[in-house]
From TrEMBL:
Pfam families: Oxidored_q2. Core subunit of the mitochondrial membrane respiratory chain NADH dehydrogenase (Complex I) which catalyzes electron transfer from NADH through the respiratory chain, using ubiquinone as an electron acceptor. Part of the enzyme membrane arm which is embedded in the lipid bilayer and involved in proton translocation. It is found in: Mitochondrion inner membrane; Mitochondrion membrane. This is NADH-ubiquinone oxidoreductase chain 4L. One of its GO terms (biological process) is ATP synthesis coupled electron transport. It is a multi-pass membrane protein. It catalyses: a ubiquinone + NADH + 5 H(+)(in) = a ubiquinol + NAD(+) + 4 H(+)(out). The lineage of its organism: Eukaryota, Metazoa, Chordata, Craniata, Vertebrata. Its main location: mitochondrion.
Length: 98
């Protein structure tokens, strides 16, 4: 495994571990998701550059578009949660009360 692959893999794993183990605020969960998507985007972009084919260059842009949609939906949920519950703590959210 090259150092470049190791760095992107470790960045993705750190984001996944932060998402799994540090679940106190909704904003921290969204930041972990964005870190994971950023590492995937850079790894996919470097993979498309290494393959030197024009057909593979669409995949990173598609991933970036989905990442932007995910970020906007997450921020909308964060604002809605902060308005209704007054906080972004994940412990205050209960799916049974919705």
């Amino acid at each position: 495994m090259t150092p470049v692959h190791f760095s992107f893999t470790s960045a993705f794993i750190l984001g996944l571990m932060g998402l799994a183990f540090h679940r106190t605020h909704l904003l921290s969960a969204l930041l972990c998701l964005e870190g994971m998507m950023l590492s995937l985007f850079i790894a996919l972009s470097l993979w498309a550059l290494q393959m030197e084919a024009t057909g593979y260059s669409v995949a990173p842009m598609l991933l970036l578009a989905f990442s932007a949609c995910e970020a906007s939906a997450g921020l909308a949920l964060l604002v809605a949660t902060a308005r209704t519950h007054g906080t972004d703590h994940l412990q205050s959210l209960n799916l049974l009360q919705c």
